[in-house]
Amino acid sequence: MNQRQLEVFHAIMLHRTASRAAEVLFMSQPAVSKTIQQLERSIGFALFDRVKGRMVPTSEGQLFHEEVARSFAGITQLRQTAARIRDFGSGKLRIAGLSALSTSIVPLALKDFQQRHPNVAITYLTRLSSEVRDLVAAGQFDLGLAADEVDTTGVDAVPFCRYKAVIAVPPGHPLAKVSRVAPKDLHGVSFIALSPEDTTRQEADAILRAKKVEPRIVLETPFSSNVCAMVLAGLGCGMVNPATAGPFVASGLLLKPFDANVHFRALMLFPTNRPQSRIVQDCVQAFHKVLQTRDIFRPDPASV
């Protein structure tokens, strides 16, 4: 029993006649009949009864074909998988990203990507930027989105986006009445701050110190989304990435332009020494498409 004999048998069962199977397989009908005879001798039972010139499957032939059909389905699946890997990569996409982008840019980009690649399995993890970097450096993830303060040793890093910081204000707060927030407006104000190692906070702290402005820090967190939630709950004001704040604005959060040269910056991280698959390239394209087409998330004019 060999692969060619099984192909001929499978073709006859699918097309119901030896003549049609011969056409599909580009064989002569006598060659088809001879191949089936060889297969029957090798397996030890008849696959067809010859009735008035037609090949009618025996009950044993029907049972045997159930197994043959399953094996051919597996081969078809393997061919499809091979084609998908050839064209797009593994068929899986693993992304790790910082929290600031997980409520806005990431969902929109992945929606666009998934519409074009519905059969690609996507894994997305929200992690601290340092953890994102470690996952990508270890080759466990295909793409990372991290803040620019992250150590880029062991990864390929390219600038992704840059947003001017805004001040998040709860409804009813005194600053809700101003059109723009100046650094001096934050003096003595209850303030939810980002973590001290955050480069955006460091930029803001340097500006506030130079102007002798001291907000009253009531809470620190590494995530802009947490700042938004705490501000909305009334704990104070906070400096946030506008790309994070969209869902919270719908719940009443107020965003005020901040009169200071302070920015949030993100990098795209890739494993080193690994060519990007078509899947990864298309995902990167989806991320950039969101930046270009969504006004609420569009970076400031100095965007990298």
Automatic annotation (TrEMBL):
Keyword Nucleotide-binding: no
Keyword Lipid biosynthesis: no
UniProt keyword terms in alphabetical order: DNA-binding, Transcription, Transcription regulation
Entries under Pfam families matching the protein: HTH_1, LysR_substrate
One Gene Ontology MF term: sequence-specific DNA binding
SUPFAM superfamilies hit by this protein: Periplasmic binding protein-like II (SSF53850), Winged helix' DNA-binding domain (SSF46785)
GO BP of this protein: lysine biosynthetic process via diaminopimelate; positive regulation of gene expression
Residue ranges constituting the HTH lysR-type domain according to the UniProt record: 1-58
TM ranges: none
Similarity section: Belongs to the LysR transcriptional regulatory family.
Protein name: LysR family transcriptional regulator
Species this protein is from: Allopusillimonas soli
